[in-house]
Amino acid sequence: MPRKKSDDFVPHPRYGDEPRLTGLNPKENSGTGKVYLHWHSPSEVRVPNTAIAADTSRQLQPTIAVTHYFDSRRRCVDCRDSFLFFAAEQKYWYEVLGFPLESNCVRCVPCRKKQRGLETQRQRYEDLFALEDRTANQDIELVESALTLVAAGMFGTRTLERMRSLLKQAEPHRKLEGLWRRLREIEEASR
Ligand SMILES: [Zn+2]
């Protein structure tokens, strides 16, 4: 089985898993004109010779416009794996999607996807929680969401107590037994 090298990068579905060399390597204060590089990517994380030129007119009201983007090494705040925040991806973020230059990329793509899924889950939880009357199915769905969010560390374990009392009052349901089991597992794991 191929072993994962310690310097491997988490693959990006669009840009791949290795730096994209462009041969462009502008330096700040090189005296050849104004070069401003992104403060989120200091020299120690920039991959040399991967720069692409920015279109500063498309950046969102920058205090200081960034003139070039470099492929930059990052460590994911969630899974701690290494990944690349690609120059082309930065250009896309700051010039096409309209993200401000302040926004930084701190998660690898799989963790970004997971986080988006959890955000949806949390929204669903809050919508259900706000209902005055929930059907039996909605109660079940509420508990399912809550357990997922606790397991992912987005909700604290206090939520489990609330879910425990909800399950005690719940009407008979084919999923009840499984939810009790899952709740106990999460409780065990969080001790
Ligand atoms: Zn990650």
Question: What would your notes on this structure say?
Answer:
The chain is mainly alpha-helical and 191 residues long. It has 2 domains: 9-107, no CATH class; 111-189. 39% of the residues lie in helices and 6% in strands. The chain has 5 helices and 4 strands. It has helices at 87-96, 109-130, 136-151, 158-169, 176-189, and strands spanning 52-53, 68-69, 72-75, 82-85. The strands form 2 sheets. It has a two-stranded antiparallel ribbon with strand order 1-2. A two-stranded antiparallel ribbon has the order 3-4. A hairpin with a 6-residue loop joins strand 3 and strand 4. The longest helix has 22 residues, at 109-130. The chain is elongated. The two termini are 35 Å apart. Zinc ion is lined by residues 76, 78-79, 81, 107-108, 110-111.
Helix content: 25-40%
Shape: elongated
The largest beta-sheet arranges its strands as 1-2
Largest sheet: 2 strands, antiparallel
- When the domains are counted, the total is 2
Compute the number of strand runs: 4
Structural class category: mainly alpha
Which series of helices and strands comes N to C? Answer: EEEEHHHHH
Number of helices: 5
Tell me which ligands are bound. Answer: zinc ion
What is the C-alpha radius of gyration, as a whole number of Å?
23 Å
Strand content: 5-15%
How far is the N terminus from the C terminus?
Answer: 35 Å
Mean pLDDT: 91
- Please mark out the parts with pLDDT under 50 across 5 or more consecutive residues, or reply none: none
